[in-house]
Each structure stands twice: as structure tokens, then as C-alpha cells.
Write a structure and sequence with these properties.
By secondary structure, the chain is α/β, with parallel strands linked by helices. The protein contains 11 helices and 16 strands. Helix content is about 30%, strand content about 20%. The radius of gyration is 19 Å and the shape is globular. Belongs to the peptidase S66 family.
């Protein structure tokens, strides 16, 4: 039986959202990019963006003071003038926030939190506190996209966070990119990155339609969390649809297989209702096929050939991005090729 989660209030135009540096303090080195993200968020959604007290104190300070980052999260949640929370950028050490996070504050003040990558730590903290969290773009990435926010990203955020709650189908992005653009080069901010045509989803296995709650995040960050107090309890995995993605670290397909074997050994795959895999960044065609082979192999070892698996979704380290409400129920229908997020 799936656990239940509090769904935070939506963020209509006029909402005030806090921009948080819960991972890297890199934002102070690319303030033009930050301001672009703020303007584009205000233009597309009508939100007022407010930097949290420690967000702009720089990489050196934030690296030395993870407790200050956690303080900002608690400040945003407890501040009655703040309606939602945005991650400015990811990083690689949010796991250091764990001793300083107060799940009681998250539970008592449920507000939407949007982020991905290293924000997996915070996203799962919300789930552990019984609150839905939103796996989606950060302020410096897709929200500050060169030449304007991509319509696919805008649609995903509107459906998950702005519009009145109703069921909606996920869809493949019509185009995608992983092209690097130097955020420090202000001349490039107005130059649209090159995009490749979308190549759709891959349904790897499974025939029966299933329903379960979303849980997951960045695999490399999940590996850092494994064995810590930040790791989800067994109950949070019961009946879950796992949503997993890889970062610009480009882990080898076999490494992803090893991580999945760990999930099998923990009983997570036995408890799962389904599996969503994001398009892996910087993978060659050969690496993608090897990855799919490892997924099938591990699921066969775990006697889960029945598990519905959908790959090549747009929710990780490529652009544009879906926004996935972690904790929400989703319906996977392999026969119809549909993934539906339920209100």
C-alpha cells in the first residue's frame, strides 16, 4: 500500500518564492544568469523571486557552513510571506545538510519545493516528512534557459505547480539538448542552444497497467544517501514508481546496474510498482543499449520481469525538463503508452 503525502498549496501568479543555495554557492559567479532566471520566472509564472538570507554568501562560506543552508530552508518554510521554494543550482554535498534538517518544520509548513540533481537530498527529506516535493528544473538551468524558457518546461511547471489540480499525461519532449553554454559569457544568454529532434520514450518491459507514488532522483546522490538517515524508510518504497536519472558525471552503464542490484538486495525492486528512467546525459548509442541491457538483467535476477519500465524520459540532466511531483500517484499503461499523473 502506498503511503500518503500532504500536497502543498499551488503557486498562482503573485506568489513569492524563495531562491535557495542548498548545494553549491556558485551563483555569485554568474549573477547575470541568476537575474535572467528571475526575470523569466516572473514573466512566465508571475512569481516574485526572493533570495534567501544566505543564498548569495558565496561558495567558500556555504561550503564551510552547511547549517546555514539548512537554516535557509527552514526560514523559507516558516516565513509566512514565502509561498514556495526554488533550488538555484545543484552541487555535490547536500548530504552534509542531513544533521541540520528538521523534518518537523517541513511537515508543519508544507510548501512546494522545486529542484533536481543534488536537490535529491532535500526532495527526499520532504517525502520523509510526508510532503510532496517537485523534481524539476533549477533557477540557473532550464528556468534561465538561453533565449527564453522552453515551452515544454513551462508546461510541465504549470501543470504540476500553477494550474488547478487535475490529471495530466506526461509526454516526450519534441526536442532536447545537452549542449554546454558558458553561463559566465553574457553574450551567449540570448543565443538559443542547438536542439536535436525528440526521440520518444522506450518501453523496455511490462504489460500490465500499474499505479503507484513517485519517488527517486539522481542516482549518484541516492548513492551518497544510501545507509544514512536521509535514505527513505522501507514503507516509502512500498508500491512506488521509481524515477531515476544520472548526472553529468556520466556513470558507466554497469555502475547503474550495480546500484540497481543494491536496490534489489534491499527489497526495493520487489516493492516497486514501476520504473522511469531519464535520458542519460552524454551517453553514446552503445552506452544506452548497454544500460538497457543492465536494467533488464538486474530485473531478471530480481524476478521482476513483470515490472513496467519506461526509459528516455525528460526529467534529468538534459533540457527541457518535466516537473514530476514526487509523492503523487501516477498511472503507467504500457498498452496505451501512457503515463498519467493523478491529482
Amino acid at each position: 500500500m502506498s503511503p500518503s503525502f500532504v500536497r502543498p498549496t499551488r503557486l498562482p501568479p503573485g506568489s513569492r518564492v524563495a531562491a535557495l543555495s542548498l548545494s553549491s554557492g556558485f551563483v555569485t559567479e554568474v549573477m547575470n544568469r541568476y537575474q535572467t532566471g528571475v526575470r523569466q520566472v516572473e514573466h512566465e509564472f508571475g512569481w516574485e523571486v526572493v533570495a534567501s538570507p544566505n543564498a548569495m554568501r558565496g561558495e567558500a562560506f556555504l561550503s564551510a557552513h552547511p547549517e546555514a543552508r539548512a537554516d535557509d530552508l527552514h526560514w523559507a518554510l516558516q516565513n509566512p510571506e514565502i509561498d514556495g521554494l526554488l533550488s538555484i543550482i545543484g552541487g555535490d554535498d547536500s548530504v552534509r545538510l542531513l544533521p541540520h534538517l528538521d523534518l518537523g518544520v517541513i511537515h508543519s509548513h508544507p510548501k512546494p519545493f522545486l529542484g533536481f540533481s543534488d536537490s535529491t537530498v532535500t526532495l527526499l527529506a520532504f517525502l520523509r516528512a510526508g510532503v510532496t516535493a517537485y523534481h524539476g528544473p533549477s533557477l540557473l538551468t532550464d528556468l534561465a534557459e538561453n533565449g527564453g524558457m522552453h515551452p515544454f518546461t513551462v508546461q510541465g511547471i504549470r501543470r504540476a505547480l500553477v494550474d488547478a489540480p487535475q490529471p495530466f499525461d506526461l509526454s516526450p519532449a519534441p526536442e532536447w539538448t545537452e549542449h554546454f553554454s558558458d553561463w559566465a559569457d553574457t553574450a551567449l544568454q540570448g543565443v538559443r542552444r542547438p536542439f536535436a529532434p525528440g526521440d520518444g520514450w522506450q518501453w523496455l518491459q511490462g504489460e500490465a497497467a500499474v499505479q503507484g507514488h513517485l519517488i527517486g532522483g539522481c542516482l549518484e546522490v541516492l548513492d551518497m544517501l544510501n545507509g544514512t538517515p536521509g535514505w527513505p524508510t522501507p514503507a516509502l518504497w512500498d508500491g512506488a514508481v521509481l524515477a531515476l536519472e544520472t548526472s553529468e558525471d556520466v556513470p558507466a552503464p554497469r555502475q547503474v546496474g550495480y546500484w540497481l542490484r543494491n536496490y534489489a538486495a534491499q527489497g526495493i525492486l520487489a516493492r516497486a510498482a514501476g520504473l522511469l528512467l531519464a535520458r542519460p546525459r552524454s551517453y553514446t548509442t552503445e552506452m544506452v543499449e548497454e544500460l538497457y541491457g543492465w536494467v533488464r538483467r538486474v530485473l531478471c535476477e530480481a524476478e521482476r520481469e513483470d515490472l513496467p519500465v519506461v526509459a528516455n524520459l525528460d526529467f534529468g540532466h538534459t533540457s527541457p525538463q518535466l516537473t514530476l511531483p514526487l509523492g503523487a500517484q501516477v498511472w503507467l499503461d504500457p498498452a496505451a503508452g501512457r503515463i498519467t499523473v493523478l491529482p
